[in-house]
């Protein structure tokens, strides 16, 4: 009889371990998604070599600035060719000739000035100058965007492309009233919604150096926005499809983050999800606004605990079967 009871206890322990392994699969902090979900904090790099253009650059409209690269060919007693970048102060330094400030000039005028300067040193030389690559710079984008800050763009980047660099508009962004503050010029208000609907390039302008883009929030959602520079992610664990760390988005609710984590698994209890803030469980519903560093836990459904795989009912049934088997053996 002692051996039978030892077998019963061993089987019970095995069933308990099996259930613990199932629970560990969902809802433990060490068991997260292999990759961070949704949006990565690392900024995208906008490659411009070779440049991707909408159309041929018009030398009567393009404005030269620091970072533009020129090819300079001087055919005098011997042929000389240089790739030269416009410096941070706007000067183009030509070997054997000197420097000339061409920043802020339209392309055709800048090339004329450079040719005249080279002719002073190399008289009667054939001179060819061409813009061979366009510059990059940073513009500041603030407000209702997913990763506000500075976006690295090229001299021909439009507003929609710049917003893509910082991971797009916030869900509550008012895309019809985007303000562009422009140095030395009047501020302009554009509508990306109108650009999408009509294709109006006036609502999707090419950005300039020094521009500040401000995207407002929709007025009715503005009160629930918690803007912060904190980079602490929101941790979603429990019985969800992709548990792990998700970047913080101002104004997103508990159910939004559960959705970003792939949704509730088949055995999770969506309605019983709760928040842990500063180490304490918070009374919250699915519409509660989440803050940086919050933890969201989705528990297992009661139905699965009672009737699912390795459930309490299965454990009791197995234990009862062993007891009945033992009693049957003893009665013989």
UniProtKB/TrEMBL annotation:
Domain SLBB: start-end pairs: 138-215
Q: Which organism is it from?
A: marine metagenome
Location of the Soluble ligand binding domain: 234-279
Q: Name one Pfam family in it.
A: SLBB_2
The protein's name is: Uncharacterized protein
State the Gene Ontology terms under molecular function.
Answer: polysaccharide transmembrane transporter activity
Which PANTHER family does the record associate with it?
A: POLYSACCHARIDE EXPORT PROTEIN GFCE-RELATED
Q: What is the lineage of its organism?
A: unclassified sequences, metagenomes, ecological metagenomes
Residue stretches spanning the membrane: none
